[in-house]
Amino acid sequence: MHFLTVLIVPILIANSSGVELWSYFRNQRQDLRVDAADIKFELYTNTNTEVEILSVDSLDDLIKSNYYNRSVRNVFTLHGWTGTILRSMSSGITDAIFASGEPANIFVVDWSIPAGQFYPFVVWSMPSVGQIIANYIDKMIDHFEIEASNFILVGYSVGAHLAGIIGSNVNGTVGQIVGLEPVWIMFSPDDLANVLDKTDAAVVHIAHTTYGFGQAAISMGHADFYFNGGQTQPGCEDSHCSHDRSHIYYAESILSSGFKAVKCSSYEEFKNGDCDGNEEAIFGGYPLDESITGDFHLDTAEAAPFALG
Ligand SMILES: *[C@@H]1O[C@H](CO)[C@@H](O)[C@H](O)[C@H]1NC(C)=O
Ligand SMILES: *[C@@H]1O[C@H](CO)[C@@H](O)[C@H](O)[C@H]1NC(C)=O
């Protein structure tokens, strides 16, 4: 990890005093080109317990795969800043999808080389990373004669915005995007090409567990779920833990229908009972429930299983 990353992370995560620093970097925006060789996919399927590593340069590895099944959904998981998050985030979700018995080709995207840089360089690399992955998906659509609606992108933290960038670059409308705690440092909700929003897929659901960092809650999906108010999570002592909960909740939701949420415009109203009797929705699942729209609130337990039923 870049030494500056180590220096800046605590400032960034611990409080919002980094805000001015980030607006400085936001104004220095550059477009950094990423080499496709710096991105890899790990392919997991229901019929294969051994991972296959796929080069992103061409479709050749996928065409040669003995396990890829063009008849089932394609799930891409996108980790956040720094590569260390890759394993915990993707393995929880991958294991849950296979345990659910639903078929899937799961592409665990390893973009840890560009994602391991100093934060502003990560943000400035994302349009290029997103374009490379979108081109790959376009090639899959052409070669295997499948529909864009067959794709589900699951992104965590900055990876949620990466899912949005991919969705807006794919030729066609991606089926679903699960945005797990999109972080807003150096991103602007007005810059729709570079952030996750509901134009990026037919269905976009977002989990909020740590909004803050100096900005307001921003609902950008067809459905936005605010957990425990969306800022801090019970049983967590720091923001890292609360941030991580977004993908832990999503993995649990694939095997549980217990994350029952209520349509409500604020946590205060939710806690006051003002929203009792409003429309209910279940967070998450694989695939997502396409009929849900709006802002929803729910509470969780402090430890797994988190869903309260
Ligand atoms: C591919 O998926 C379809 C639909 O789930 C299934 O019927 C078929 O057996 C699978 N093919 C292989 C080779 O596993
Ligand atoms: C986009 O998709 C359409 C319909 O499948 C196809 O005709 C067209 O060639 C594609 N465009 C590109 C740039 O791949």
TrEMBL record:
<dbReference type="InterPro" id="IPR029058">
    <property type="entry name" value="AB_hydrolase_fold"/>
</dbReference>
<dbReference type="Pfam" id="PF00151">
    <property type="entry name" value="Lipase"/>
</dbReference>
<dbReference type="GO" id="GO:0005615">
    <property type="term" value="C:extracellular space"/>
</dbReference>
<dbReference type="GO" id="GO:0016298">
    <property type="term" value="F:lipase activity"/>
</dbReference>
<comment type="similarity">
    <text>Belongs to the AB hydrolase superfamily. Lipase family.</text>
</comment>
<dbReference type="InterPro" id="IPR000734">
    <property type="entry name" value="TAG_lipase"/>
</dbReference>
<feature type="domain" description="Lipase">
    <location>
        <begin position="31"/>
        <end position="277"/>
    </location>
</feature>
<dbReference type="GO" id="GO:0016042">
    <property type="term" value="P:lipid catabolic process"/>
</dbReference>
<keyword id="KW-0732">Signal</keyword>
<feature type="signal peptide">
    <location>
        <begin position="1"/>
        <end position="18"/>
    </location>
</feature>
<keyword id="KW-0964">Secreted</keyword>
<protein>
    <submittedName>
        <fullName>Lipase</fullName>
    </submittedName>
</protein>
<dbReference type="InterPro" id="IPR013818">
    <property type="entry name" value="Lipase"/>
</dbReference>
